């Protein structure tokens, strides 16, 4: 009977080893999946940070950042130009771009509501004058 008992304990030991091995494998798979998710999230966060910094650096270097003075902002959107000089510079800076820049400045708090409305009105007025001038040139 000692042999039967020895075989019984051996079978229990082998079964326990297999159960522990399966359990360790499952836990290891869960941990590696969790690590992959955390690693992916961290990688995306770092990548988003790098893209944000590159965007801010690019906008700062191009001069459209919020670090400029009011006179440069007025010049860049056509606020202090006369209508005759505006028509000559519209090729480099379209009216839609200037209006988008005004909206962005208003949203970011660089200009208040009254200043935004004044500049948009002036921009729309100059845009209408440009359209009229183009129509007159076509008729000639």
What would your notes on this structure say?
With 140 residues, this protein is mainly α. It folds into two domains: 1-62; 65-139, no CATH class. It is built from five helices and no strands. The radius of gyration is 34 Å and the shape is rod-shaped.
Summarize the structure.
The protein is an all-alpha fold and 140 residues long.
Portion in beta strands? under 5%
How much helicity do the residues have? over 70%
Low-confidence stretches: 65-92
The number of E-state strands comes to: 0
Number of helices: 5
How many structural units, i.e. domains? 2
Rg, Å, rounded: 34 Å
Overall pLDDT score: 79
Pattern of helices and strands:
HHHHH
Distance between the termini: 119 Å
Principal-axes shape call: rod-shaped
